[in-house]
Design goal:
Length: 190
C-alpha cells in the first residue's frame, strides 16, 4: 500500500473512532438530512464545532474597502483562508470554482480570504486561474487568528445564518460526489 493510501486509511480510521467515542453534537445536526450530513462530514474529514456563533469580522475587498462578513448571511458559504504560495491551495481553488459555478444561483458563495498578501497579487492570481468567486483580504491576519486559522487552506462551512457547521484544515477535492451531495443538502435547508 502506498503512503498516500495508507495516510487516507489512517485518517478515515481516526475519524471513525472519534465519531464512535463522541457523537457529533454540533450545528450540523440541526439541519434536515442531519444523518447524511454527518456521514459526509466524516467522509470529507470535516470537524464540527460544539458551539459556534455566527461568524463575525471584517475583511477587505480588492479595492481596500471593509466588508463585514455578516453581509453574506442568507447564503451557504465556504469561508476559505488561503495564500498564493500555498501548494494545496493551488489544488483546492479550482475545485471550489467548479462547485461555485454549479451552485452560485442556489445561494452558494465562496469567500476566499487571502492572508497577508497584496490586492494586486490576489487579483492577478484570480485572473490567471479563472476564479470568479469572492476574493477578500486579511492583510494583517487578524481575522484568521480570531478564527483559529493556523494553516492554509482552512475552510469554514457556514449555513445561511452565518453559523459555522464545520471546519476543514487542509485541501479537499470539493468537486467530488461527496462535496456536491453535502452542498445540495445544505442548500436545501432553508
Amino acid at each position: 500500500m502506498d503512503r498516500k493510501r495508507f495516510g487516507r486509511l489512517v485518517q478515515l480510521i481516526l475519524a471513525l473512532v472519534l465519531v464512535l467515542l463522541s457523537p457529533i453534537k454540533g450545528k450540523a445536526t440541526e439541519h434536515s438530512g442531519a444523518a447524511e450530513i454527518q456521514r459526509l462530514f466524516i467522509r470529507l474529514s470535516i470537524s464540527t464545532l460544539k458551539e459556534a456563533p455566527p461568524v463575525e469580522g471584517m475583511a477587505l475587498d480588492l479595492r481596500g474597502e471593509e466588508v463585514e462578513l455578516s453581509t453574506f448571511r442568507g447564503n451557504v458559504a465556504f469561508l476559505t483562508f488561503w495564500t498564493t504560495w500555498c501548494p494545496s491551495c493551488k489544488v483546492e481553488m479550482p475545485a471550489l470554482q467548479k462547485l461555485y459555478a454549479r451552485y452560485q444561483d442556489q445561494g452558494f458563495l465562496v469567500l476566499a480570504v487571502n492572508i497577508q498578501e497584496s490586492a494586486d497579487k490576489v487579483a492577478e492570481y484570480f485572473r490567471a486561474k479563472g476564479l470568479s468567486y469572492i476574493p477578500l483580504l486579511d492583510p494583517r491576519g487578524k481575522l484568521a487568528r480570531g478564527l483559529g486559522v493556523w494553516s492554509v487552506p482552512s475552510t469554514f462551512i457556514l449555513d445561511r445564518r452565518g453559523v459555522v457547521l464545520g471546519k476543514v484544515m487542509g485541501a479537499r477535492q470539493w468537486d467530488s460526489p461527496e462535496g456536491h451531495k453535502l452542498l445540495e443538502l445544505l442548500l436545501a435547508d432553508q
